[in-house]
């Protein structure tokens, strides 16, 4: 395979998987990791990929842009189901839980629906899913964002400043050594306040979210008690240094 053919194949793989490790690319293309590293360097110099820890992703994805809810809902379905199963198993009856917006959090909400919980929601679909049985649902007032259904704005922020919860189930667009970041400024502000309002924060994020950064910082890793992710997530050295508990499922 000629270098141009290899690099075209690499870009096709990244379009399908969003980000890949060098080893994974080498196995899929059928060449050595050293060859792939040279190809990735060439693609990076052309502005087509961004190098990450041990791999790469398409450059246009390096700075997070928020996809529509319908698009997000079909990404990484197996990983999201596994993450949601584990996260739901960690929530005790009687807890007061803040539910972030996002498709992975929605899957957790579906699993917890009907349980004896107080659910404070930042997301319309999560509120609908939870409002059955013994679950008490508090939907925070604010602006419903088109195409994502998250709730943001001054009303939401004011409510969060006056709330106290046992647990915040948080999603994110990106996680790196500086912490959790988000592509939408208004959502980042709401997430930050939810972290402050909660005794503990559990971050739910699949492997594509790690090793890069979005536009707006939410919080440092020191504010995250536990991260739940899928088996393709690398145990980055900066996660170990931060002392964050990482559960891969």
From TrEMBL:
Q: Which SMART domains match?
A: DeoRC, HTH_DEOR
List, for all copies, the residue spans of the domain called HTH deoR-type. 3-58
**Which PROSITE patterns does this entry report, sorted A to Z?**
HTH_DEOR_1 (PS00894), HTH_DEOR_2 (PS51000)
GO molecular function annotations of the record: DNA binding; DNA-binding transcription factor activity
Gene3D superfamilies (UniProt xref): 3.40.50.1360, Winged helix-like DNA-binding domain superfamily/Winged helix DNA-binding domain (1.10.10.10)
Assigned keywords, A-Z: DNA-binding, Transcription, Transcription regulation
InterPro entries under this entry?
Carb_Metab_HTH_regulators (IPR050313), DeoR-like_C (IPR014036), DeoR_HTH (IPR001034), NagB/RpiA_transferase-like (IPR037171), Tscrpt_reg_HTH_DeoR_CS (IPR018356), WH-like_DNA-bd_sf (IPR036388), WH_DNA-bd_sf (IPR036390)
What is the protein name stated in its UniProt record?
DeoR family transcriptional regulator
